[in-house]
Task: inverse folding
């Protein structure tokens, strides 16, 4: 016997309040504790702000210490992301090196053109 899909209306659990007119309002979506407060992001932002304030106040050592503590915490909490980033790092370094080599080539070309132009103008 073949199965025939039957369209379902919205589950009754989504409707929590019924007004006198008979219309039902959808319930507020349930949030998980992770959605309410992400401690890692909060701590990273807090250390960034605190480090910036300390740096602006002229307390470089304290700013460096706060930034290092925040970075260490994030590295410990997000080990998988750090591992992926570390594996991609050689590609980023190679791309940056290629970019620097291109810029160096352009600068050498500009310098050579400048010398040619100076030689032409001296004649």
Result:
């Amino acid at each position: 016997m073949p199965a025939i899909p039957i369209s379902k209306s919205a589950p009754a659990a989504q409707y929590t309040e019924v007004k006198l007119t008979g219309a039902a309002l959808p319930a507020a979506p349930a949030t998980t504790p992770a959605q309410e407060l992400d401690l890692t992001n909060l701590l990273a932002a807090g250390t960034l702000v605190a480090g910036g304030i300390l740096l602006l106040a002229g307390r470089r050592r304290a700013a460096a210490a706060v930034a290092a503590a925040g970075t260490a915490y994030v590295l410990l909490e997000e080990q998988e992301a750090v591992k992926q980033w570390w594996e991609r790092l050689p590609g980023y370094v190679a791309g940056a090196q290629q970019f620097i080599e291109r810029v160096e080539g352009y600068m050498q070309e500009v310098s050579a053109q400048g010398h040619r132009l100076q030689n032409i103008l001296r004649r």
